[in-house]
Every structure is written in structure tokens, then in C-alpha cells.
Design goal:
By secondary structure, the chain is of the alpha/beta class. It has 2 domains: 3-18 and 236-427, Enolpyruvate transferase domain (UDP-n-acetylglucosamine1-carboxyvinyl-transferase, Chain, Alpha-beta prism); 21-233, Alpha-beta prism (UDP-n-acetylglucosamine1-carboxyvinyl-transferase, Chain), CATH 3.65.10. It is 28% helix and 26% strand. It has helices at 21-32, 47-58, 91-100, 123-131, 168-176, 195-207, 238-251, 271-277, 312-318, 341-348, 382-393, 414-420; strands at residues 3-7, 11-16, 36-41, 62-66, 69-74, 85-86, 108-112, 136-138, 147-150, 157-162, 184-189, 213-214, 218-221, 231-233, 252-258, 281-285, 290-294, 301-304, 326-329, 355-359, 362-366, 374-377, 399-402, 424-427. It has a 4-stranded mixed beta sheet with strand order 22-23-1-24, with helices on one face. Strands 2-15-17-16 form a 4-stranded mixed beta sheet. It has a 4-stranded mixed beta sheet with strand order 4-5-3-14, covered by helices on one side. The longest helix is centred in the middle third of the chain and has 14 residues, at 238-251. It is globular, with a radius of gyration of 21 Å. The two termini are 12 Å apart.
Length: 429
């Protein structure tokens, strides 16, 4: 593990955040299913999205990357992969490709990944696929990867799926459903989380010529509506921009975030409202695709992050310098990410001298003034690493954060961008 030392810093300047991981995954998967040539412009090339590129290649699509553009020669008939599909650390790749693995005419597909992926829950998706005529199972019979999917096509019909674990289950079925033998009706039962991510999926399906209608917790996808090739530019990632926003709110005199797209739905765009609610000044220039964050005296509040669980470490970090209690709730599903993020934050943040109460669905944080010098373990989780680095900016004597190599999952240039803004980050010795 590579560790960095982060010293107290004051930030100023501008940064272009990386392209959206979520939209890159969806664009590549849909382009692979669209017969003809698509272009995905300004994609995010990270460990997670490369896993999706490799999976689509294994299914028979031809993908080439040159000068910031991925050219995808898609196919309407996937083939059975010649080898196991390794989704690395990407839950999105795992979930989307599980449904797509039913589409080849015959054979079996095995999907697995790293130690974190092999702990990810998959049973709700496997159960929903069974009602749509797809045979799939967990090799260890524990509902987690490795996953085996029998090919032969999706029959379609009616199914239901839990909405409280991951929106990626819904996304997976919606993308594959046009290739079913009959129309597909998917009903979401129970509490729903991360719905804006499904909204993004629906937007992308329609852009690629597909059809999907949404009712009250129900989605209907007609059979036989094939995808069409598309020239798509990936928007900048609000999930990554959220960390720069937090850094600006905590330690920024003026931090400008450029290259944003405010038209396509992104769950984590709510971070701008949260930063303002906590006392930071945020100025949005929609026409210019940018916003400016200025630090201020932050105060507490109560925040429901059920639709944006990736903001848990961001808001928890902003809470470190708040003048009052911060209550974060609705993020029980954040326990099923790269790590149990609720538990990891409850374990690590007290090292800084903050009182943290862990709840089943979130955290209550009570800052106690100056943040102590300490060692923070990101648990090989890219979002934990970025959050802990930001905490170091406002610590008393700096912090050491382990897990720098994890950022290649979503934001490979994070440390460089932070340094360009004035952050004092060096490799720990």
C-alpha cells in the first residue's frame, strides 16, 4: 500500500474533474449492443471502466481507443466469452454484465473480481433474472460472486426486484431487456435508493434509440427495439467533483470546477446544495459549465443521502469542521460498496478527534475543534482515500493516508489536481 502525507493547506485555482464513471459504463455497454459504429468521446479511462471495456470485448464487440475517443463496433448477438470475465473492483461492471451474459445463444459466462467484489450482494439480481427466464447462480451459494450465467437469451415477462440494495440491479435488467423474447415488466419493491442513477440509465437508453417507460415503481421495456449507434460525449463526473467541492468548502479561498454538464442527471450534483446548506458559498455558471466554491464557517445539519450514497464520505469529511452536529442517514446501502463505508468512517474518523456514532443507516458526527495528527487507512477504497486526504488539509499537523493506489478506480489524477490547487501532499516515507 502506498501512503501519502497531507499537510494543512489553503486551496485556490481551477480544476477540470474527470469524466463520469457512471455514464462511461452505460455508454460503452449500450454501444456494444448497438449494431454499427458508435463513438464515446471523453470517456473516463479508469480501472473500473476498463473492466467494462474488457467485458464488452469478451462478448464480441470491438473497441478501440485513440485521442480520447473510444470507437465501438457493436453487435446485436453477443458471443460466449472464451475466459472468465474479471470485473476487477467494479460493481457496475459486474451487475450490468450479469444480465448481458444471458444474451449469447449458448454456453455459460463466469463473472468474478477482486476480494471486494466477491463480497458484493448479487442475489436480488439473480432472483429477478430467474423470473425473466435466466438461469444464474452464485458459485459459493452465498449470493456473492463468482457468478455463473447460462446463455440462451432472456425470455422476458414480469419480475420484481428489491430497491434497497443497489440501483445497478435495475440498470442491468433495463439495458438487456430489449433483447428478451417478450416485453419485460420490472416492478421495484420496498424502499428505493439511488433512483437518479436509474434516471441516468433511462436517459442513455433513449439516447441510443431504446424505449423504456416508467410508472409507479414499475418499468416496462418492449421487446425487439434494438439500440442504434450513437456519438456520445461523456459529461464530467459530479461524484469526483464532490470531493473538490468538499475541499473548497473546507480549505478553499476560491476553487473553480470546470467542464461540468448540468443537463444530464447525476445523483451527486446535490453536493452543491449540501455545501451551501452547510455554509459554503457556491456560485454556479450553467452556461459556462462551471461552479465556484468558497470556504466559510460550516455548520451542522441533517442529510438524507439515500439517492446519493457515494456522498457519504464527502459529507462526513465536511462535517469535521462544522460548528454543530451532522446527521447523515439513508445510506445503509453504502455498506455494500467497495468497503462497508459506514463502518470504515466510524472506525477511522475518531482518530482525528471527532466523536462519531454509527447507526445502521448512517452516522452522527460531533466535531470537537482541532483535528489531530494521525494515520488513516482508506481500506483500499478510492472514495475513502480522497475523503481522508481532504481531511488532512484542515488537520492540526497533517495526516498520513494509506491507499493512494486505489484512486485509479475513478479519479486517477486526484492527487495531481489537489496539488495544482495548492494542497501539500507528498509520498509518505
Amino acid at each position: 500500500m502506498v501512503a501519502v502525507k497531507v499537510l494543512p493547506s489553503r486551496l485556490e485555482g481551477s480544476v477540470w474533474v474527470p469524466p463520469s464513471k457512471s455514464y462511461t459504463h452505460r455508454a460503452i455497454a449500450l454501444a456494444a449492443l448497438a449494431a454499427g459504429t458508435s463513438k464515446v468521446r471523453r470517456p473516463l479511462l479508469s480501472r473500473d471502466t476498463i473492466a467494462t471495456i474488457n467485458a464488452c470485448t469478451a462478448f464480441g464487440a470491438i473497441l478501440n481507443q485513440e485521442n480520447g475517443v473510444i470507437t465501438v463496433d457493436g453487435i446485436t448477438q453477443f458471443k460466449t466469452p472464451e475466459d472468465v470475465i474479471n470485473t476487477e473492483n467494479s460493481g457496475t461492471t459486474l451487475r450490468i454484465m450479469t444480465s448481458l451474459a444471458s444474451l449469447p445463444p449458448q454456453g455459460f459466462t463466469v463473472l468474478t473480481g477482486d476480494h471486494s467484489i466477491r463480497k458484493r450482494p448479487m442475489q436480488p439480481l439473480l432472483d429477478a433474472l430467474r423470473f425473466l427466464g435466466v438461469e444464474s447462480w452464485s458459485t459459493r451459494v452465498n449470493g456473492c460472486p463468482p457468478i455463473v450465467v447460462k446463455a440462451g437469451g432472456m425470455k422476458g415477462g414480469s419480475s420484481e426486484i428489491r430497491g434497497d440494495v443497489s440501483s445497478q440491479f435495475i440498470t442491468s435488467i433495463l439495458i438487456a431487456a430489449p433483447f428478451a423474447q417478450t416485453d419485460t415488466t420490472l416492478r421495484v419493491v420496498g424502499k428505493r435508493v439511488s433512483k437518479p442513477y436509474v434516471d441516468a440509465t433511462l436517459q442513455m437508453i433513449r439516447l441510443f434509440g431504446g424505449r423504456a417507460t416508467e410508472g409507479d415503481d414499475t418499468y416496462i421495456v418492449p421487446q425487439g427495439r434494438s439500440y442504434k449507434p450513437m456519438d456520445f460525449a461523456v459529461p464530467a463526473d459530479f461524484s469526483s467533483a464532490a470531493f473538490i467541492t468538499a475541499a473548497g468548502a473546507l480549505a478553499g479561498s476560491s476553487v473553480r470546477v470546470k467542464g461540468m454538464n448540468f443537463d444530464l442527471p447525476q445523483a451527486d450534483s446535490i453536493i452543491l446544495n449540501i455545501a451551501e446548506t452547510m455554509g459554503s458559498k457556491v456560485t454556479v455558471h450553467r452556461d459556462q459549465g462551471e461552479f465556484i466554491v468558497q470556504g466559510g464557517d460550516l455548520h451542522g445539519g441533517s442529510f438524507d443521502l439515500s439517492d446519493s450514497p457515494d456522498l457519504l464520505p464527502v459529507v462526513a469529511t465536511m462535517a469535521l469542521k462544522a460548528s454543530g452536529e451532522v446527521n447523515i442517514y439513508g445510506v445503509g446501502h453504502a455498506r455494500f460498496k467497495e468497503t462497508d463505508r459506514v463502518s470504515v468512517l466510524a472506525e477511522e474518523l475518531p482518530k482525528l478527534g471527532v466523536e462519531v456514532k454509527e447507526k445502521q443507516d448512517g452516522l452522527v458526527l460531533r466535531p470537537k475543534g482541532r483535528l489531530k495528527k494521525c494515520f488513516l487507512d482508506a481500506h483500499d477504497d478510492h472514495r475513502m482515500f480522497m475523503a481522508f486526504c481532504i481531511a488532512g488539509l484542515v488537520s492540526e499537523e497533517g495526516v498520513t493516508v494509506e491507499g493512494a493506489e486505489s484512486v485509479d478506480v475513478s479519479y486517477p489524477g486526484f492527487v495531481e489536481d489537489m496539488r495544482n490547487l495548492g494542497a501539500k501532499i507528498e509520498v509518505a516515507k
